[in-house]
């Protein structure tokens, strides 16, 4: 039989996230900060895609994107969203759910300009999620924006390129245990208090 004691502590879920994320950064081959982001239309049709976690603390989990994209349209119409991390190297999963809110213009500016010049150009040139007739069209826009701002060394942040912060109301930690007797612990926010319970796997 396996060791049946709990391995996921009933402590602060943010501290637990930090501990697991730190481990994932040393064990994942790349992009330990990659997470699936699920959004839904107001009539509840879901969609999901990967984004990168670019900041997190007790206020929430932040990613950056183009607000004119498909996800951007869904988020503006229906702020409820879910995040999922799956670290294969650790055999662990974290689910995080709650509403999204746009970050401040200052926060978005600071992050946009912390990125390499070529990344700023690529983002500014992309009408993310809109039809593109030909890849050459995109590359020509990249060239044009690159030339226009090369002497400045930075590109103005397009106002629709922004970040969103998910304020968690539910977080769930899943860990692989021997014989498929896996362990799950769910944290739910009630007022300003986080409660925790184990869940059947
Ligand atoms: C590992 C990985 C990380 C990604 N990170 C981001 C990101 O941080 N922001 C972003 O807008 N798109 C990111 N993408 C691209 C998205 O998955 C997606 O193709 C794009 O945002 C358009 O999604 P939408 O049409 O649902 O809006 C990433 C893709 C992968 C595979």
UniProtKB/TrEMBL annotation:
Keywords: Flavoprotein, FMN, Oxidoreductase, Pyridoxine biosynthesis. It catalyses: pyridoxamine 5'-phosphate + O2 + H2O = pyridoxal 5'-phosphate + H2O2 + NH4(+); pyridoxine 5'-phosphate + O2 = pyridoxal 5'-phosphate + H2O2. Coiled coil: none annotated. Residues 29-146 form the Pyridoxamine 5'-phosphate oxidase N-terminal domain. GO terms for biological process: pyridoxine biosynthetic process. The keyword NAD does not apply. It holds the Pfam family PNPOx_N. Signal peptide: none annotated. Residues 161-201 form the Pyridoxine 5'-phosphate oxidase dimerisation C-terminal domain. The keyword rRNA-binding does not apply. Binds 1 FMN per subunit. Pathway: Cofactor metabolism; pyridoxal 5'-phosphate salvage; pyridoxal 5'-phosphate from pyridoxine 5'-phosphate: step 1/1; Cofactor metabolism; pyridoxal 5'-phosphate salvage; pyridoxal 5'-phosphate from pyridoxamine 5'-phosphate: step 1/1. HAMAP family: PdxH (MF_01629). Belongs to the pyridoxamine 5'-phosphate oxidase family. This is Pyridoxine/pyridoxamine 5'-phosphate oxidase. The lineage of its organism: Bacteria, Pseudomonadati, Pseudomonadota, Alphaproteobacteria, Sphingomonadales.
């Amino acid at each position: 039989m396996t060791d049946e004691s709990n391995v996921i502590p009933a402590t602060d879920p943010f501290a637990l996230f930090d501990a697991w994320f730190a481990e994932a950064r040393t064990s994942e081959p790349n992009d330990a900060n990659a997470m699936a982001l699920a959004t839904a239309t107001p009539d509840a049709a879901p969609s999901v895609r990967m984004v990168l976690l670019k900041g997190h603390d007790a206020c929430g989990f932040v990613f950056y994107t183009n607000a004119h994209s498909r996800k951007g349209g869904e988020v503006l119409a229906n702020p409820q969203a879910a995040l999922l991390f799956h670290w294969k190297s650790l055999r662990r999963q974290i689910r995080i759910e709650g509403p999204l809110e746009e970050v401040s213009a200052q926060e978005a500016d600071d992050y946009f300009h912390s990125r390499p010049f070529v990344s700023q150009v690529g983002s500014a040139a992309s009408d993310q999620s809109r039809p593109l007739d030909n890849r050459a069209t995109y590359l020509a826009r990249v060239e044009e924006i690159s030339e226009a701002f090369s002497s400045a060394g930075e590109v103005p942040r397009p106002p629709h390129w922004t970040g969103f912060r998910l304020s968690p109301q539910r977080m769930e930690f899943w860990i692989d245990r021997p014989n498929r007797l896996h362990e799950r612990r769910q944290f739910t926010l009630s007022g300003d208090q986080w409660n925790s319970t184990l869940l059947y796997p």
